[in-house]
Amino acid sequence: MLFVWRLFRDRLPTKDNLLRRGVITLDSQLCITDCNSIETTNHLFLHCSTFGSVWQCLLRWLGFSMALPLGVIDHFNQFSWDDGTVKDRRTILQVIWYATTWEIWKERNNRLFNGKQSSIVQVVDRIKSLTFMWLKEKYPTLSLNLHASWLNPFTILGIG
After folding, report:
1. Which of 47, 68, 103, 121 is most buried (most C-beta within 10 Å)?
2. Domain limits, the chain
């Protein structure tokens, strides 16, 4: 995934990166959500009050509780932590993490370039659908149930 590679290396065209390259001006570097913070990778994907609430919704969905670390790589490692019980659990968490960061990026771009915004619930619903589709591709022999995966994504592999 080129997107995740660029995300981990802080190579996405976030506003702070565009400012450093001279593409935008100093007064254009604030986050698209009007939270009055500079749009950096870590801010956008983790600490923005708007997009950070996406993670809180997902944590409730998964039945997890965690503090958000400062950086995206640390967050990925913490989010997809393997407790050693079920191998596929880590895969599911990684897929959820990838889908979440992708949907946050798409929502940011939709707000920035199209002037349209979805609710956090709509973003979370898209993450759940995308996660289901990606897991269905990874495990094609399983009879996956979209409704069950929306209730708890681990149930699709019998580890709920």
Report:
1. 103
2. 2-157
